Amino acid sequence: MPQLRTALAQNFNQAVNQIRPSAIREFDQQISDIDGIIKLTLGQPDFNVPEHVKEAAVRSINENHSGYTPQRGIPELRQAISDYLLQTTSVRYSPESEIVVTVGASEAIMSSLAAILNPGDKVIVPTPAFPLYFAAVELNQATVIPIDTSADEFVLTPEKLQAVLDEEPRVKAIILNYPNNPTGIEYTEQELVTLANVLKNHDIYVIADEIYNELTYGVTHHSIAALLPEQTIVINGLSKSHSMTGYRLGYFAAPADFVTKASKVHAFWVTCPSNPAQYAALEALTNGLQDAAVMRTAYEERLTYIKAEFRKMGFQIGQTTGAFYLFAGIPPTFNGDSTTFALALAKSAKVGVIPGAAFGPGGERYIRVSYASSLRDLQTAVKRISTFLKTNTSNTLEEVNK
User: Fold this and answer.
1) Among 19, 74, 190, 213, which residue carries the largest CB count within 10 Å?
2) Largest Cα–Cα distance of the chain, in whole Å?
3) Contacts with 190 (C-beta within 8 Å, 6 or more apart), sequence order
C-alpha cells in the first residue's frame, strides 16, 4: 500500500485541515457495529421510492439517456421545478435563467456559498443546525456566526438577528433551514415576516434550505422567498419528499444574476446531474406531488407516539411540527454531556441516536432521534430506553462507556 510522501502529508488546504468530518456520520459509524442496535440516527426515510418514479429512472436508462445533459438540468425538469415553486413559494422562477438542478441539495448549498463568499466574509447560522452548514462556510474561508436559539424555543428572533447584524459588518448571508434539522421546528408565517422586516434592510443573501417543506404536521409551510424574492436563494430537492436520498437530486432557485454566477461553480464541480435521477425527479414533480402525503401521515403518527412516550420518560420535548426528528432534552437526573449519554444508550440499550452537541451551540444536553423508521422499531426502542433510564444513573454512564 502506498504511503504519502512525508512532505506532502503536511501540505493540504488549511481550510480542509480545520474542519471535522460530519459528527453525525462519525457517531453513527462508531456505534454501527453494536450487535442488534436499532439506529435512529440518520435522516434516511424508511419508505421505498414510489414505483412510478423508479420506472421513470429505468425508462431513462432503457431509452439510452446516457449523454451529458444541459449543465443546469434538462429543460423539462426545470419547468416542473418552476411550476412546483410557484405553488409552494408564490414566486415565478424562470426555468431558463433562475433554476439549476444539482447533485443533491448539499451541492446546491455548496455551489451557492462558493459563488458568494470571499475570505473573511461571515455567515449567520441559527443553531442547533445541520453540520454541513458549518463545514461549507469554513471551506470557503469564511466564518460562521452562530445564533443560539435554544432559549427561544429554537426559533430565531428578530431581536437577536438585528443585534448580530449591528455588530457584524461583514455578514454576507444567513442560512435558514425550516422545518429544521435537528429540532423539527417550523417557522410560522408571522415569524418569517418579522425576520424579513429585519433582513430587507441589509444587503445579505438569505439561503432558505426547505428540503423538508413537504413534511409538516398540523401547520402550513411558508417560504421566506415570498417575502424577500430579491434576496432569497431557495434550496430544495427530492430526497425527503420522495425518499430519493441516493438519487442525489436537488436544485436551487434565485434571481438570474445570482444563478449566472452560481451555475458556473456548479458546472465546473459536477458538469451535470445524472440522466436517470433527473427523469425520476421529473416524474415525481409531474405525476407524484401526492406521494409525500402517505409518508407524511406515517411520520405524523410516529411523532405523536414518540413525543408522548419520551415525555413520560422525562425528556424535554419542544413544539416539533416538521421534518422527522425529535430533539429531546436529556432528563435532568442524568449529568454529563450528550455524547456520554448517547454512547451509553447505544452500548447498554442498543438504541442509536445522535448527540445534540453535533449540531452546534444550543445542542448540548439534547439528543436527536430520527423517526424515519418503522413504528415497530420505535416501539422497541422506547421500551429499551425506558429500561435503560430505570437501571442506569449518571454514575453508571461512564462505566458503560469504558
Assistant:
1) 213
2) 63
3) none
> What phi and psi values does residue 334 have, to the nearest 5 degrees?
-105, 125
H helix or E strand, kind and range, residue 85: helix 75-89
- Do 34 and 89 lie in one domain? The reply is no
Q: Are 291 and 300 in contact (CB under 8 A)?
A: no
The residues, ordered by sequence, that sit 6+ positions from 320 with a Cβ below 8 Å of its Cβ are 183, 184, 185, 303, 307, 326, 327
Tell me: do 111 and 166 sit in the same domain: yes
Is there a single domain that holds both residue 139 and residue 236?
Answer: yes
Residue in this structure with the C-alpha cell 445542542, named with its chain if needed: 363
Tell me whether residue 165 is in a domain: yes
Q: Contacts for 159-166 with beta carbons within 8 Å, 24 or more apart?
A: 161/124, 161/195, 161/198, 161/199, 162/198, 164/124, 165/124, 165/198, 165/202, 165/204
Model confidence, pTM? 0.95
Q: Give the domain CATH number at 356.
A: 3.90.1150.10
Which cell is 239 given?
430526497
d(CA 171, CA 111): 18
- Report whether 111 contacts 99 (CB < 8 A): no
- Domain boundary among the residues 272, 287, 302 is at 287
Residues 98 and 190 both lie in one domain: yes
Q: What is the bridge-based pairing of β-strands 325-329 and 250-253?
A: unpaired
Which residue, among 317, 297, 321, has the nearest Cα to 309 in the 3D structure?
Answer: 317
Is residue 53 within a helix (H) or strand (E), and if so which, with residue range? helix 51-62
pLDDT in tens, 343-396: 999 999 999 999 999 999 999 999 999 999 999 999 999 999 999 999 977 666
pLDDT digits (tens, 9 = 90+) for 271-283: 999 999 999 999 9
How many distinct structural domains can be found in the chain? 2
Range of the domain at 122: 51-287
Cis (ω within 30 of 0) for the bond into 276? no
Estimate to the nearest angstrom the gap between the alpha carbon of 336 and the chain centroid.
27
